[in-house]
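Hi everyone,

Forwarding the result from last night's run.
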Amino acid sequence: MNRINLPNGLENVSRLILGCMRMPDLSIDKAAEMVKTSMDLGINFFDNATCYTDGVAEERFGEAWTKAGIARDRFILQTKCGLCFDRNEFDWRRETILSSVDDSLRRMKTDYLDILLLHRPDLLYEPEEVAAAFDALEKSGKVRHFGVSNVPPMMLEVLKHTVKQPLIINQLQLSLEQSQLIDAAFYMNNLTTERSIDRDNGLLDYCRLHNITIQAWSPLQYGMFGGCFIDDPKYPELNATLAELAEKYHVTKAAIALAWILRHPAQMQVIVGTMNPRHLEESAAATQVSLTHHEWYQLYLAAGKFLP
């Protein structure tokens, strides 16, 4: 497994991350098998969130890693807080952040988080409250590093102005089909396509400038949660190109789609949400594929883009 050092924090972390949102679908034994498979493949990074099945995903992961007998210091554990679907609101208040972390630690059977992410913007956030929460969590040893998920550049600027700790992660949607994170620069000053609209305010380059690692979520999805484009008849040209490159590199089409994200010079991580050990093994092969410059563009165009 290809490993990287995150610019503002952790060292020797896997390029692929196992996303645990669907882990409640597994029994404890199957979840433990999934954690062990991940570690055996060199995927030592696990992502969770307080809102995933109202905490059940965190609880199942806690049961799984302890049953698998994996030493806590062998893996990176990340969770997200701030999405309160029970109240239909996003909440970055100090007490909410602190209580969410305590609940996450209890559910996941650990006394610390490697990374805590604020999960989507709270439109009423007060940066001083976030800073107070981060200070308390760092001082207590409950959280070692901090970041965000789906947060735009200027909100990051306000947070960075106020909090003392580096923000080392921004978790963002990116796939061959959902590529708005990179599209605007390609089509700038072009009135013939909506792809010229800057929907992210230069967020990709902002993160690169400020040493914030992007973690790509839903890397095989079309739409926001439309489904997987692999073998979907709506994407014949993309699947034909994926198949051609999969044959060349002796991997699956899904691995090629993941390798497309990993090929970007921003040194992103990719979150893989499968709960199937065989599929995870196939995904892990993506880190051994080095697409050429031409192949990267070949896939981008096959996904429905065009040369301006």
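The mean pLDDT is 96.

Cheers,
N.
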